[in-house]
Amino acid sequence: MGKRKRLVAEARKEANKSKYFAKLNSCPTSPRKMRQVADLVRGMEAYKALNVLKFNTREASTRLEKLLKSAIANYEAKTGSRPDENTLFVKEITVDSALMMKRLRTAPQGRGYRIRKRSNHVTLVLDTKN
Known about the structure:
Blueprint: H1 3-17, E1 20-27, H2 31-41, H3 46-54, H4 59-79, E2 88-106, E3 112-128
Antiparallel strand pairs: 1-3, 2-3
Helix pairs in contact: 3-4
């Protein structure tokens, strides 16, 4: 690794030490469905967002709820204290597409239709209100 690349990587690691985030990689849900659930909680207080996700009927909401709990646990580990009710909020949540599994479905007259099973990466960043 070159010197400039190493310096940039070290700067990124230092910046991540003051951030409270959690990542979910290769989640087997299509990015569009996950974004619809992510839009519900973006900018919301953390514990209010947990309640919204807990009572949402979509399948992607259970995965996001687990990710939000992980981000809150990361906050507790980095700061060493439990957050108050109204101090933490979801600063940003990004959903990116990941690998796509390609399968074939049999079709009439000897043909095959392509099935694309999509997956996504989710990054959730928390911040405190000061």
